[in-house]
Design goal:
The protein is an alpha/beta fold. It has seven helices and six strands; from the N terminus they run βαβαβααβαβαβα.
Length: 202
């Protein structure tokens, strides 16, 4: 039976989506399967509705994706040091999973992108951890044994992968260190899920 890791994110300009793809590669380097999912934007227009399938990119996430996954890696751009409203809105709708305890004991990690170096990376990562703790998930970060955490001059934190996307209309490319940290985060969550899978002998 394959172990599936949900890589769930919201991305407005593509920087967080780019991180998600590298995280998925890290997941799949272990032999696990990465399931990429996103969430629709939240509109100020109360009558606005999003199509059930996005025009491009991965499908929108649903509760079944959370139930089916053996682990979760969740990402968002920062919004004033917090996760984006679209991701918060999705998480606010997971009370039934909290009541049933269906996420308890699954490994999880978080990632973010900010436009500036000190744009709230760590507080955004911490904000995403809170609902995962309430769900009883096992939070993983990146240890300092990972050399890129010490060599990076852009994104990268022990709380999770991060990226400095810049303030222009086009997001800056991920640096080599940022890519390595994204890949490592996905690998760590998948590797932990594989070890926790029923019948594992590790």
């Amino acid at each position: 039976m394959s172990v599936e890791i949900l890589v769930l994110y919201y991305s407005r300009h593509g920087a967080t989506a780019g991180m998600a793809r590298h995280i998925a590669r890290g997941v799949e380097s272990t032999g696990a399967v990465a399931r990429l999912r996103t969430v629709p934007a939240v509109s100020a227009d109360c009558e606005a509705t999003a199509p059930s399938i996005p025009g491009d990119g991965p499908p929108y996430a649903g509760a079944k994706d959370l139930v089916d996954c053996a682990g979760l890696v969740m990402g968002s751009p920062t919004r004033f040091g917090n996760m984006a409203a679209a991701l918060k809105y999705f998480l606010d709708g997971t009370s039934a999973l909290w009541m049933s305890g269906q996420m308890v004991g699954k490994p999880a990690a978080v990632f973010t992108s900010t436009s500036t170096m000190h744009g709230g990376q760590e507080s955004t990562l911490l904000s995403m951890m809170l609902p995962l703790l309430h769900h009883g998930m096992l939070l993983l970060g990146i240890p300092y044994t990972q050399p890129e955490l010490s060599s990076t001059r852009s994104g990268g934190t022990p709380y999770g992968a991060s990226h400095v996307s810049g303030t222009g209309s086009e997001p800056a490319a991920l640096t080599r260190d940022e890519i390595a940290l994204c890949t490592e985060l996905g690998r760590r969550v998948a590797q932990t899920a594989l070890r926790l899978a029923p019948g594992d002998k590790a």
